[in-house]
Amino acid sequence: MSARAQDIGARVATFVREEIVPYERDPRRTAHGPSDEMVSEMRGRARARGVLTPHILADGTHLTQRETAYVLRQSGLSPLGPVAVNTAAPDEGNMYLLGKVGTPEQKRRFLEPLVGGRARSAFFMTEPATEGGAGSDPSMMQTTATLDGNHWVVNGRKAFITGAQGAAVGIVMAKSEDGACMFLVDLPDPAITIEQVLDTIDSSMPGGHAVVRIENLRIPADQMLGHSGEGFKYAQIRLAPARLSHCMRWLGACVRANEIATDYANRRHAFGKPLIDHEGVGFMLADNLIDLKQAELMIDWCADVLDAGEPGGVESSMTKVAVSEALMRVADRCVQVMGGTGVTGDTIVEQVFREVRAFRIYDGPTEVHKWSLAKKIRRDWKAMQ
User: Fold this and answer.
1) What count of Cα atoms within 13 Å lies in the side-chain half-sphere of residue 309?
2) Per CATH, is 3-88 categorized as 1.10.10.1800?
3) Is the pTM for the entire model greater than 0.90?
4) Are 363 and 246 in contact (CB under 8 A)?
């Protein structure tokens, strides 16, 4: 690990532990994430400590994926950490995409406020399953984009749009005659209506997850990201690193949950000795160390693939499956080790369990990634015949 990443990561970890962990009991935390007031307050503290948006350097360049993995893991030591230091989804992935594809003017107008932590964003891709819209299969997209002079007119409905409530920047995916497109929009906009903020199992992301209606949204042509019909290509630029970033952040959260469970097992006595000395408990914590290390190594391996300039689609699918499943086991064991305390809100262990359960679905369910990998296995086998 580079010296600069070690330095940045250490400062992020210290900041999260010292200044953000106390916010875990703040009443401004809601079922739909921390309030915007709370987000602004935490980011002000991060800015003052020099750890806001730590994965993007002062000159606008990004840390490598391997370095980012180290830094984002430290930000994840609290479920509030990524929001506080501006490494959270969907902003982190949107910043990455805009940095790769955006024009200079688009970067000035839409990217700079995100990097500066002054704005939040939303990525409008997923659609309601009840209407046959795009979910894990983006080719099912129903939202349309029609060219009208020097504007595009977009109509459709979106679902599970993280952070839509309170976002200032939107990336909207729609389908033109050429294929999938991406558009940059200022939010709020009267043509975009939040119909419902869903009650979901997770609660760490500001604005929650919304169902949104888009009616005759007029977007200037120069706010298209890239070119008409190339939206899926741009989505792939974003998706592999974004999958990996989720793994990085939740690895940090599970490291912290394991610290809490380990402390509990060493302090709590039952049947004449500390819980840690009971084989059933000690073995669960041993299994946690194994899963955490395997998750870390998978993340670093995939990061190296991306740093080598490869698309990383296959590797990120493998990593997302392996890490999300491993971290689910870790979080579950932490709850089990702590017994009744583990299912209360007295520590963040219960929340980490909920968040990681949702993580197994977000950015592609385990089964979709395995299906995609199985198709590759089939293609490779046929090519060898």
Assistant:
1) 0
2) no
3) yes
4) yes
